[in-house]
Amino acid sequence: MDKLLEIDLHAILRQRFSAKAGVLFPGFLITWLEKVIRQKELNAMLKAAYPMRGSAFARKILEHLDISVEIKGIENLDSHTRLMFASNHPLGGLDGISLIAELGGRYGDANVRFLVNDMLMNIEPLSDVFLPVNKYGSQGRSAAKTINSALASDKHILQFPAGLVSRLHPDGIIADLEWQKSFVAKAIEYRRDIVPVKFEGENTARFYRVARWRKKLGLKVNIEQILLPGELCKSRGKRFRIIFGKPVSWESLKSREESPRQIAAAIRKMVYSLE
Predict the structure, then answer these.
(1) C-alpha pair distances (Å), 191 with each of 107, 157, 188, 197, 212
(2) 267 close to 196: Cβ distance less than 8 angstroms
(3) Which of 49, 151, 260, 271 has a 20 to 30 A CA-CA distance from 65?
(4) Nearest to residue 106, comparing CAs of 125, 78, 86?
(5) Is residue 51 reached through a cis peptide bond, with omega within 30 degrees of 0 on the bond before it?
(6) pLDDT digit string (tens) for 200-235?
């Protein structure tokens, strides 16, 4: 039986940094960080979901948080195979968990792979469905090989083309940043139809406020990311909706005269037009 996953920020930081660097992380600061990420609540969540894995783990998390997710447009997926799901990324955790719960439940965990930052591989109960992206050195080459192998398989692929969580824009709209073009090129290369997916939800005003001030101060590090675990906990009792659009055929993408970047922007626009 798998060991119960438990978050221990003190242990994580001690392991990651040398004794000299550890001076930058005094005990009181780590304790504060544990409160910010709501470590106790996260561990209670992990305990409640233990020993589930994959989509079963995801569904248990939603149940523990009393979260319900309405699904719309699921009939658009009938009779389609080897799909690439491209979703907006409004929440930074719960959106991914909800999509894993739905798609893993529909197709089976063995038939779904979710492209994620390699740091998320530390969420061991979801490691079976995660496909880590690492852009650096030999690990980057190994990750690329693994990703291409999955793309060539019959498994369905899910990803957030924006990479980062949605932000509050100057016009007052909360939406993704620019979508990366690689998912379009890969869909064409591996002959996968793209399913535009819209996840309806928002983080708290605090998250967007911190992100705005961080940008105004010219800080490059996305310090607002540390708030995302707490945002997950704050979602208790909420209701969300996922809308699956009609798949866009890879043949139609290949025949278009626009660049992959322009097509990615068009599919992003398509996602936000789903109702």
Answers:
(1) 19, 12, 5, 19, 39
(2) yes
(3) 271
(4) 78
(5) yes
(6) 999 999 999 999 999 999 999 999 999 999 999 999
